[in-house]
Amino acid sequence: MKRGLDAPICLTWELTYACNLQCVHCLSSSGQRDERELSTAEAKRVLDELRDLQVFYINIGGGEPMVRRDFFELLEYSVGNGIGVKFSTNGAFIDAEKARRLAAMDYLDIQISLDGVDAVTNDAVRGVGSYDMARRAMDNLAAANFGPFKISVVVTRHNVSQLDQFKALADSYGAQLRITRLRPSGRGADTWNELHPTNGQQREIYDWLMKHGENVLTGDSFFHLNAFGESLPGLNMCGAGRVVCLIDPIGDVYACPFVIHDEFKAGNVRDEGGFSRVWKQSDLFLSLREPQSAGACASCGSYDACQGGCMAAKFFTGIPLDGPDPECVGGDGEHALSIVTPGSAPKPAMDHSKPVTLSRKPVSARR
Amino acid sequence: MACAASTEHSPAEPVVTVALDSALELHPQVAVRPEPFGALAYHYGNRRLIFLKHPDVVRVVQQLAEHSDVAATLGACGIAPDRHDSFVTALASLQKSEIVRERIIAG
Question: Model pTM greater than 0.95?
Answer without folding.
Answer: no
